[in-house]
Every structure is written in C-alpha cells, then in structure tokens.
Amino acid sequence: MPRLVSHPDEVKIVSRRFGKGAASIDRYLELGGYESARKCLKQGPEWIISEMKASNLRGRGGAGFPTGLKWSFVPKQNAKPKYVLVNGDESEPGTCKDHLIFQHDPHAVIEGTIIAGLAIGAKLGFIYLRGEYRGLLEIMEKAVAEAYAKGFLGKKIFGTSTEFQIITHTGAGAYEVGEESALMESLEGKRGIPRIKPPFPALVGVYGGPTVINNAETIAAVPHIIAMGGVAFAAAGSPGNGGTRLFSISGHVERPGVYELPMGYNLKKMIYEVAGGVRGGRSLKAVVPGGSSTPVLLPEEIDIGMDFDQVGKAGSMLGSAAVIVIDDATCMVEFALRTISFYQHESCGWCIPCREGTDWLKKTLTRFHAGFGETKDIDNMLYLAENMMGRTFCPLGDAAAMPIVAFVKKFRGEFDEHLGGKGCPFAKPAELVVV
Ligand SMILES: Cc1cc2nc3c(=O)[nH]c(=O)nc-3n(C[C@H](O)[C@H](O)[C@H](O)COP(=O)(O)O)c2cc1C
Ligand code: SF4
Predict the structure, then answer these.
(1) CA distance 396 to 193
(2) How far is CA 305 from CA 75, 98, 274, 290, 308, in A?
C-alpha cells in the first residue's frame, strides 16, 4: 500500500482532503463537502452536464472517454430505471490510487455518485469495490450510513423531493470484472465475463437499464469540478485533457507513491524530480507509463507530456496513469514473463485468442527465460501476440498482447542473449542452479 507522499509540483484537487480526516462526514462538511451536490440539485441536469463537458474530464479508468459526453448519451426518458455504477475494481498492476480515495475521501465518491445520478436522472447508484479491498468496504459502508443519517441519501435527499440511494458491493477479486460489462455481470450475481457490445451501458446496462459507469477517480473529481467550475478544472490540465491525475509511481524509484499532477506533466520530470530518480543511482532501462497493459517506453522516449494524446503519439497509452519504472538490473524477458503470467491467470477464458494466446505466451516465455528458447520462438511470440490483438470479445486480449509486442520489439537483443542454453544473463548464480 503506498504511503501519502507529496511534492511541490502537485496540484491537489482530488487529493485535497487526503490525510485530513475527511472519512468522517463532519470533517468532510467542514472542508466544504456536499456543497456541490446541493448546488447541482438547484441547477439541474443540463447545467451539470454542460459543466462536465466544459471540464474536459476524461475517464480515469483507462480508456480516457470524455465523461460529460458519456453522461449525455443516457436517454432522458426511459421505461427502465437508470443507474450510476462506480468502478472501484482497481486491478491493473501498478495502479494504486483509487484505494487512497476510498480510504481518505469516501464522501467525495458518494457526492460524485449523487451528482452523476442527478445528471442522468438515476435514483440508485452502486459503488463496486475490488474484492481484496475488504478494509475499504468498511470505510465506504460507514460513510454511506453517515450520508443516510444526515439525509444526503434516501427518499428525499437534502430535504428535497429527489430520491437517491447507494449500495456498496465487492467483487471476488478478478481483474476482468474491472471491465465495465463484466463488472455489471458480477454485480448482478453472475460469472464476471464481459457482455458483447453494442448495446453500450449508457443504453442497456445494469439490469437492462441505462447505466453510467465511471472509475472511482473520475467520480471523485466531479464535486471538485462543480465547486471550481468546469472551465477552471479544464485549465489545470493540457488541451483536451482537463484537470489533474493521480499518478501511481512504482518500481525502481527513490520515492514511490501516488502524486497528483496536472495532465500533460512531463514524464521524465515525474521520474527524476517528483519520484526522486532511479533507486540507488542506477540507470533507467524502461518505463511502463500507464499500467501493465501499456507498451513499454525506452529512456529516450520519455520526454513527453503525460496526457492521453501525447502518450498515444509516443506509441503507448496513458491508461490508468500507473508509471512503472524499471532499472538496468532488470531482465526484460522476466518482466515480460511476469506480465503475461498475470494476464494468463486473469483471462476469463471465454474467447480462444486470449485464453490460448496468453497460455502459449506464458509457456514460451517461461522456457525462454530458463534458457531453453530457440531463435524462432522470438518471432513466434510476436506472431502470436499480434494475432491476439483486435480478435477478442473484450480488451483484455489486447491488454495482454500489446506489452509483449513492445517488449520483444524494443528488447530483442536481450531476448537473443537468453539463447544458446545460457539462460537469463541477469540471474544470480543460485537462481541458475534452480533453473
Ligand atoms: C480488462 C479490463 C480491466 C479494467 N479494469 C478497470 C478497473 O479496475 N477500474 C476501472 O475504473 N476501469 C477498468 N477498466 C475500464 C472500464 O472498462 C471502463 O472503461 C471504465 O470503468 C469507465 O470509467 P471511466 O470512463 O471513468 O474511465 C478495465 C477495462 C478492461 C478491459
Ligand atoms: S479477451 Fe480474455 S478476458 Fe476478455 S472475454 Fe476474451 S477470454 Fe475473456
């Protein structure tokens, strides 16, 4: 679990109340809490959506879809009830920011959910937490109970005739249920495998009703956007990428942790200044910029702004903004093996390219890393990974294949060094004996 860290370059919007006792509703109210929900009750849905669009907030779950636009897709009139669904599954390796929100500022999630509900005309919201976050469930449940006790949730919220209720729910601990349609299946009590899209959740979501599903950080940003105004939030970021982002910086840095920095903040500066540089004075070998599914960048590729567009132009993705820093003592073949082992374990098994592809890649990389690889394995891995991409029911297949393609293409020399029965050049003698 990351500790609370800070750096002068941080612009604290979402993390403003971290470490200030805001998990208690009275403290949250002292710090200006629930004012945005009251304001939204007065202003109405169209105003909320126009503020959200003006904020240029893009989804913090990974895909970066504009939040205001997503909310505007929900039909105004609908026969079935509408829902808000908060995605707190936070399972992408390297990502450790949503849990800080649940821990330090649970009422921001509740308030953001209420505002999303007001925007789309929903009376019920679900907060879905990662299965392993048992401790955070207690914090969230206590916060929800406090909000009910104050009359901020219920049949008549804030003394008006508007109803809004919240239910918390945990998964059983599967990466795949972070995918929005699998999450809805799981919430409904079914096996957590994805749904075929279209229809998209904004039209047919939970229990067949229109559903807005957003990442916990996206939702926690909403009360701040309403408080400061959409335009001011947008101005804190880069063009088309409003506001700040909670960057989870992990791996071989001196000061790992979660830092809130403006969208578009320079990645090189983030590693060398904010996170204190590579641990122990070693050299940088590579950076995974947005969680384990995003293609690796080389040291010469990291002088870029961290927003969805600029990281995309550099050939990778901002994803969940989980920056994993890798030093020169790391074996990239082993790193690739660890990465694919995760996806092989988490594949739900529904479609063949993902189920079989992740398994073959894991087997090949295991053999390769142990020194039993052949030259043709390298091209086979590329062929296999490239043929998984775009051929699966949900993006987990791509998430597994993309990093492997990048590892092989950018570190081919290191793969070659494992050939000829030599095994891993980075392994310590004891490890080679075990191999
Ligand atoms: C395999 C997979 C796992 C995902 N895991 C998460 C997750 O843990 N948390 C999350 O917010 N989004 C996750 N997503 C993205 C969601 O499908 C969805 O895009 C997101 O919740 C939408 O919210 P946003 O617009 O606020 O980003 C995942 C997607 C895939 C394909
Ligand atoms: S891509 Fe993988 S996780 Fe997604 S549906 Fe297919 S088998 Fe399941």
Answers:
(1) 11
(2) 36, 22, 14, 13, 9
Separation of CA 180 and ligand 1 centre (Å):
6
Mutate to test the pocket of ligand 1, among 72, 92, 181, 195 (most ligand atoms within 8 A of CB): 92
Per DSSP, the three-state class of 343 is helix
Q: What is the pLDDT of residues 262-299, one digit of tens each?
A: 999 999 999 999 999 999 999 999 999 999 999 999 99
Question: Which residues, 6+ apart, have CB-to-CB distance to 259 below 8 Å?
Answer: 5, 6, 7, 10, 246, 247, 249, 270, 274, 275
- The predicted model gives 209-225 an average pLDDT of 98
Q: Cα(first)–Cα(last) distance of the chain, in Å? A: 32
Name the average pLDDT for the chain: 96
- At 322, phi and psi to the nearest 5? -100, 105
Q: How far is CA 379 from CA 187, 409, 416, in A?
A: 41, 10, 11
Q: At 29, is the secondary structure helix, strand, or coil?
A: helix
Ligand nearest to the CA of 101: 1
Q: Where does ligand 2 bind, in terms of residues with CB under 6 Å? A: 176, 193-194, 347-351, 354-355, 392-394, 396-397
Question: What stretch of H or E contains 42?
Answer: helix 35-43
Ligand 1 probe mutation, 85, 179, 241, most atoms within 8 A of CB: 179
Question: pLDDT value at position 429?
Answer: 59
CB 137 within 8 A of CB 131: no
> Bridge-partner residues for 193, per DSSP?
none
Find out whether 129 and 170 touch, Cβ atoms under 8 Å: yes
Q: How many A from CA of 385 to the centre of ligand 2?
A: 14
Nearest listed ligand to the Cα of residue 179: 1
pLDDT in tens, 331-370: 999 999 999 999 999 999 999 999 999 999 999 999 999 9
**Residue 171 pLDDT > 80:** yes
Considering every ligand atom, which ligand is closest to the CA of 347? 2
* Ligand 2 pocket test, candidate residues 176, 183, 190, 359, most atoms within 8 A of CB: 176
Mean pLDDT, residues 321-325: 98
**pTM to 2 decimal places:** 0.97
* Weakest mean pLDDT among 240-254, 309-323, 414-428: 414-428
- pLDDT above 90 coverage of the chain, percent: 94
Contact present, 100 and 61 (Cβ < 8 Å):
no
Atom of ligand 2 nearest to the CA of 398: 1
